[in-house]
Write a structure and sequence with these properties.
The protein is α+β, with helices and mostly antiparallel strands. It is built from two helices and four strands; from the N terminus they run βαββαβ. The longest helix is centred in the first third of the chain and has 11 residues.
Length: 88
């Protein structure tokens, strides 16, 4: 099996959401075999920011979906979107 790099965008519930706390909970919420490569806060508009999370995982069936669902369960995360994915 190969390795896949995936970039997720996590949108908070509002401008008052502490993205540092969300970032702290990302690693703990990921399924086994998924490694965080980096995180970045990105300005959206009118004070709203998103958290970009870059991860590496195997290309096993269902792992991408389970990772997306795990990130969506983090408190104060409104939505999760896969921005990019590619084989390493």
């Amino acid at each position: 099996m190969g390795q896949v790099a995936v970039l997720f965008r996590l949108m908070p519930q509002g401008v008052e959401t502490d993205l540092k706390q969300v970032a702290h909970e990302v690693a703990a919420s990921l399924p086994g075999g998924v490694t965080v490569r980096g995180m970045q806060v990105k300005d959206i508009a009118y004070g709203l920011k998103s958290l970009l999370v870059s991860v590496v995982m195997s290309d096993a069936e269902g792992l991408l979906d389970s990772t997306e669902h795990a990130l969506a369960k983090i408190p104060h995360v409104e939505s999760v979107e896969v921005m990019e994915e590619g084989l390493l």
